[in-house]
């Protein structure tokens, strides 16, 4: 399958070719140990990078496990692996893919569930991140395939319940198409990055994604309940916490997405209404449904436990924050810090525009805020560079931004 020529990638390029099925058809799903061993041997005998993708069931299941793993490599074709049928044992793939560059789109979304299967790349190319660094406004897989290769992918099942078995044929077509052109896209994006002089930057970014440590669990994840800002007092916050924790335990034990057990909006509504009886509870929207009526005693018990707490046991109105305050308060609390942040943002916006980069990829906004709020004591270029590096800035980012950040910090130095 040939890519569209570079001359057709502009605004006058021809209509993209709709790709509705894989060129070699949809392979049978690998769901037995013997089939997995055969697939691993074929992949090991292939050449070049291997395209990798996964399908999860985030909106349906509590876990973020992979329910399908798609792979494609020249000489091996496409492989669709069912990790559920194989009880999570994909060990034959480990040596087959060792020392091979993996090509993923938005790799940070897939790497955690692949790591659960002991599948970890030794080298990574992220086509979505490559598109961001190339300065493209649209970086979805479909948008990049259309722009760089001249094909339009048949889409439509990304948000499906991939825990379903057997998987429908049209879903398998969709899954196979996600890796059909991924290596070709990798090659096109590689050439684009070389042309723009950004390949070295991209390689640093890919390695940072590949080696990133898992984010630590949040101290109080219940505070992310949607609509919690409408809860006005600690007693109601305790009710939100109790309902959230009860829902989380129930959802985890049954591997259900928490939002399918009870919507966030219903948690907030119950915390505000504070129903005392089952009749009061089921009178609330959602709680009157058949499933929620069966669970009414569970939700009531959570609410009663919150009411029994002493004042000392109630949650604080807000979580402690080790970072700077919201930026809209800087002007009042520290005008010099506000001036530093304004200068830094202006400088970074100019650098990002000059190099056709999203400013958030140039330097993480949170890192900029923290540096401007609490700068190094001497505000020297060496100190600023060391601080940014310590907080995770890559070398290419330091080369572009360290001096500009230093100048912004020095602008308000006493």
From TrEMBL:
Residues 233-313 form the HRDC domain. The keyword Magnesium does not apply. SMART domains: 35EXOc, HRDC. Residues 1-26, 310-333 are annotated as: Disordered. Transmembrane segments: none annotated. GO terms for biological process: nucleobase-containing compound metabolic process. Its EC number is 3.1.13.5. InterPro entries: 3'-5'_exonuclease_dom, Exo_C, HRDC-like_sf, HRDC_dom, HRDC_dom_sf, RNase_D-like, RNaseH-like_sf, RNaseH_sf. Pfam families: DNA_pol_A_exo1, DNA_pol_A_exoN, HRDC. It is an enzyme of class 3 (hydrolase). It comes from the Bacteria. GO terms for molecular function: 3'-5' exonuclease activity; nucleic acid binding; nucleotide binding; ribonuclease D activity. Keywords: Hydrolase. CDD domains: RNaseD_exo. This is Ribonuclease D. The lineage of its organism: Bacteria, Bacillati, Actinomycetota, Actinomycetes, Pseudonocardiales.
């Amino acid at each position: 399958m040939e890519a569209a020529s570079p001359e057709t990638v502009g605004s006058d390029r021809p209509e993209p070719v709709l790709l509705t099925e894989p060129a070699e058809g949809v392979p049978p799903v690998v769901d037995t140990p013997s089939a997995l061993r055969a697939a691993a041997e074929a992949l090991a005998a292939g050449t070049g990078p291997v395209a990798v993708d996964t399908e999860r069931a985030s909106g349906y299941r509590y876990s973020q496990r992979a329910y399908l793993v798609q792979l494609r490599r020249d000489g091996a074709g496409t492989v669709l692996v069912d990790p559920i049928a194989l009880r999570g044992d994909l060990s034959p793939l480990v040596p087959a893919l060792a020392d091979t560059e993996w090509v993923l789109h938005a790799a940070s979304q897939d790497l955690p569930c692949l790591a659960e299967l002991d599948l970890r790349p030794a080298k990574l190319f992220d086509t979505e991140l490559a598109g961001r660094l190339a300065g493209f406004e649209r970086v979805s897989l479909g948008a990049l395939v259309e722009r760089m290769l001249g094909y339009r992918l048949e889409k439509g099942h990304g948000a499906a319940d991939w825990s379903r078995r057997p998987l429908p044929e049209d879903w398998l077509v969709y899954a196979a198409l996600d890796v059909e052109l991924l290596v070709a896209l990798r090659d096109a994006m590689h050439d684009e990055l070389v042309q723009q002089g950004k390949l070295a930057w991209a390689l640093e970014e890919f390695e940072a994604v590949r080696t990133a440590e898992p984010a630590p669990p949040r101290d109080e994840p219940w505070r992310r309940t949607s609509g919690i800002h409408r809860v006005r007092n600690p007693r109601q916050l305790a009710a939100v916490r109790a309902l959230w924790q009860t829902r989380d335990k129930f959802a985890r034990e049954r591997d259900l997405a928490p939002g399918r057990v009870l919507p966030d909006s219903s948690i907030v509504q119950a915390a505000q209404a504070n129903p005392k009886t089952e009749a009061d509870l089921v009178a609330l929207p959602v709680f009157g449904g058949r499933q929620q009526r069966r669970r009414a005693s569970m939700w009531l018990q959570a609410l009663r436990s919150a009411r029994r707490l002493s004042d000392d046991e109630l949650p604080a109105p807000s979580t402690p924050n080790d970072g700077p305050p919201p930026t809209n308060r800087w002007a009042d609390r520290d005008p010099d810090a506000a001036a530093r942040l304004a200068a830094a943002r202006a400088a970074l916006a100019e650098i990002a525009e000059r190099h056709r980069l999203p400013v958030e990829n140039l330097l993480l906004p949170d890192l900029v805020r923290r540096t401007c709020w609490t700068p190094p004591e001497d505000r020297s270029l060496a100190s600023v560079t060391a601080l940014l590096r310590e907080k995770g800035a890559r070398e290419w980012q330091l080369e572009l931004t360290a001096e500009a950040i230093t100048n912004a910090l020095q602008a308000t130095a006493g």
